[in-house]
Inverse folding.
C-alpha cells in the first residue's frame, strides 16, 4: 500500500470519527432540551396538583360530598382520602 492509500484510509477514519462525535453531540443537545422540558413540566404538574388540592378542599369545606368530589376529579374515593391524609400529615411536620 502506498502513502496516498494510507492517507485516504486515515481521512476516511477521521471523517467517520467526526461524524459519530457530531451525532453524539446532537443526541446530548436533544437530551438537554428534553431534560429542560421535563423540569418545566414537573414544575407545572406540581402547581396543577396544588391548585387541584385547593379546589378539592374548598369544595369539601363547602359541604360537597367527598364521593362526588372524587368522581368529578376522576379518582377513587380511596385516593382522595389518601391525598387528604397526606396533606394533613405534611401540615403537621
Amino acid at each position: 500500500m502506498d502513502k496516498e492509500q494510507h492517507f485516504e484510509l486515515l481521512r476516511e477514519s477521521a471523517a467517520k470519527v467526526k461524524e459519530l462525535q457530531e451525532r453524539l453531540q446532537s443526541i446530548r443537545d436533544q437530551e438537554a432540551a428534553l431534560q429542560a422540558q421535563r423540569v418545566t413540566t414537573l414544575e407545572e404538574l406540581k402547581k396543577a396538583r396544588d391548585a387541584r388540592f385547593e379546589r378539592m378542599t374548598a369544595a369539601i369545606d363547602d359541604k360537597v360530598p367527598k364521593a362526588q368530589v372524587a368522581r368529578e376529579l376522576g379518582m377513587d374515593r380511596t385516593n382522595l382520602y389518601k391525598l387528604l391524609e397526606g396533606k394533613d400529615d405534611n401540615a403537621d411536620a
The radius of gyration is 28 Å. The helical segments are 3-61, 66-73, 77-92. The mean pLDDT is 93. The CA atoms of residues 38 and 44 lie 10 Å apart.
